[in-house]
Amino acid sequence: MAATETPEEQATTLVERPASGTVVGTDGRERCPWASSPDYVDYHDGEWGRPVRDTVGLFERISLEAFQSGLSWLTILRKRAAFRAAFAGFDPAAVAAFGPADLERLLADPGIVRNRRKIEATVANARAVLALDGGLPELIWSSRAEGRPAPVTVADVPATTPESIALAKALRRVGFVFVGPTTAYALMQACGIVNDHLADCYVR
User: Would you say 137 and 188 are in contact if contact means Cβ atoms under 8 Å apart?
Assistant: First the structure.
């Protein structure tokens, strides 16, 4: 997880533990250092790295990861409710049916990231989900790899892996767009396919 934050978004009460790379919050718990604001803490503690195996949940995350490209993940988290409302709860069947009027509606929606290419990619990816033979969970979870040691610091967390490169290729091969190896790896982290909580993080 990498993000750019303004100083006011960062908690001033965090104490970094250089040896482990974690930070200690006001509750005394050690966390990954990016969990430095209330929005991030909730996401870090309750969602990031926990297994997601349903089609809607996976489609939502692959969509949000694509929208995040070039932006702070905090921006996406704060707009998440608006994204869900705009994209029919990320039901692939509903999004796949979006037409020109929906595109114009989304481009006019200040609650989401109004990027035409990313919106069009989300619709295209919904149609790709519906066309899959084995389903989205089977495709995404086939990229799981075992045996990687727990990262000690954020420097130990890769941006891509051979598995994320393979997953991005597999997704593109069946019609997904706006999904490269870095986005695929962020998806793998978000969905619990890999566990990149630091070794001393209490969630791990």
Answer: no
> Distance between the two ends of the chain, CA-based, in angstroms?
15
pLDDT tens digits along 11-61: 334 444 545 689 998 899 999 999 978 889 999 999 999 999 999 999 999
pLDDT digits (tens, 9 = 90+) for 80-135: 999 999 999 999 999 999 999 999 999 999 999 999 999 999 999 999 999 999 99
Which ranges constitute the DSSP H helices of the chain?
Answer: 38-46, 55-68, 73-78, 80-86, 92-96, 100-107, 116-131, 136-141, 162-173, 181-190
Contact 92, 69 (CB under 8 A): no
Catalytic residue among 30, 60, 65, 163: 65
What's this model's pTM, rounded to 2 decimal places?
0.87
73 is catalytic: yes
User: Which entry of 34, 40, 48, 73 is annotated as an active-site residue?
Assistant: 73
Which among 43, 48, 141, 185 is annotated as catalytic? 43
9 noted as active-site residue: no
